[in-house]
Amino acid sequence: MASPSSNILIHNIYYMLSYAFKVLNEGSYERISGENFDNAYDLFASILAKGISKQLKQGLYREYINQSETLATIRGKLDINGTILNRVRNSKLIACEYDELSENNLLNQILKATILILLKSGAVKDERKAELKIVIIFFAGVDDILADKIQWQRIRYGKENASYRMLINICFFVLSNLVINESTGNYEFRKFGGEQLSALYEKFILEYYKQTYPALNVGLDMRDLHIDPSASDDGVVAFLPKYKTDILLHNPVTNKLLIIDAKFYSYILTTYRDAHKLRNSHLNQIMVYVWNHEADNKYSDVEGMLLYAKTENENIETGKVTILNRRYYIETLDLNVEFRNLRIQLDKIAEMILSA
Fold first, then answer.
1. HEC profile for the chain?
2. What are phi and psi of 200, to 5 degrees?
3. Euclidean distance between CA atoms 279 and 23, whole angstroms
4. Which of 42, 91, 159, 239 is a plausible cystine mate for 86, CB 3.0–4.6 Å?
5. In this structure, what are the phi and psi dihedrals at residue 216, rounded to the nearest 5 degrees?
6. Residues 97, 117: contact at Cβ < 8 Å?
7. Which residues pair with 320 in a beta bridge?
8. pLDDT digit string (tens) for 246-293?
9. What pLDDT digit, counting tens, does each position of 29-73 carry?
């Protein structure tokens, strides 16, 4: 059985997802918050079972697929080379190419592949598997696809398939964490975390502030470094990277800006000469963010924050530090608490800028 703390974390993954994907706040998913999960993949199975069931009521997404077929009468476009080859073979049939609306497309193939993997997994409870067995029946006309053969970069969303966005992201969480047990040859899951959980952590914080604090201007920023135009750059400016701040909280009343760099690591601190220290790269990064936004001369005050997901095996000192007359905050966000307490932690940060 899962420990109480891990069960809380898994439920918080669901709440984080519900901010990242607003569709999870709809009634068809409301039962999930009351269910018990032993691991993240059991949670993902529950979300997929309910989400695909809902999608089936609307109909599986269909798109035009190019078909080649030999027919008695022409359909679509004539395949001249194929038809000539038929004549050589003494066949009067016509080779044709045409587009046909089909459910056998990449998005549905990904859903099917994920369902089949979850059905074979010991990480998923029987009641979730029973739900998945009901929906897999409707994928009989969809081809099987291997998880490691999926071309994720080919996926494009539009109005006609927007309802698949959350489902496919859940599938990515599942399929990208598959590993093969060399002794049994079976698929197993890595513990959910790493880049996927880090990206979800950042997205959750951003969306929480957007949805909860309309009085703040909340967003991201992608920009070039500020370069002194009076100085010679020796032609290297074009090669300097853009940088993306994770979260900007701007109070339009006071014109104060708080830059939050959200960090999710298994270990927050690093060891240097037998002492535990914050990583230099993290502190340097937030300092560059603050300096560059100050250079805009748009804000009355600019502050920076490193917001770490709190780990079970580390306790770090949090608080404010002043470096070169600029204020920075080191804070942790405890994800192993009930969600209402997680919200309290986030609200305290928002109050810092609202009350300034």
1. CCCHHHHHHHHHHHHHHHHHCHHHHCHHHHHHHHCCCCCHHHHHHHHHHHHHHHHHHHCCCCEEEEEEEEECCCCCEECHHHHHHHHHCCCCCEEEEEEEEECCCHHHHHHHHHHHHHHHCCCCCHHHHHHHHHHHHHHCCCCCCCHHHCCHHHCCCCHHHHHHHHHHHHHHHHHCCEEECCCCCCEEECCCCHHHHHHHHHHHHHHHHHHHCCCCEEEEEEECCCCCCCCCCCCCHHHCCCEEEEEEEEECCCCEEEEEEEECCCCCCEEECCEEECCHHHHHHHHHHHHHHHCCCCCCEEEEEEEEECCCCCCCCCEEEEECCEEEEEEEECCCCCHHHHHHHHHHHHHHHHCC
2. -65, -40
3. 37
4. 91
5. -100, 145
6. no
7. 329
8. 799 999 999 999 999 998 876 666 666 666 677 778 888 889 889 988
9. 888 988 889 899 999 999 999 999 999 999 999 988 877 888 888
Q: Rounded CA gap, 273 and 333, in Å?
A: 28
pTM strictly above 0.85:
no
Q: Could you tell me which residues come within 8 angstroms of residue 298 by beta carbon, excluding any fewer than 6 positions away?
A: 255
* pLDDT number for residue 290: 92
**In CATH, 195-354 is 3.40.1350:** yes
Contact 37, 68 (CB under 8 A): no
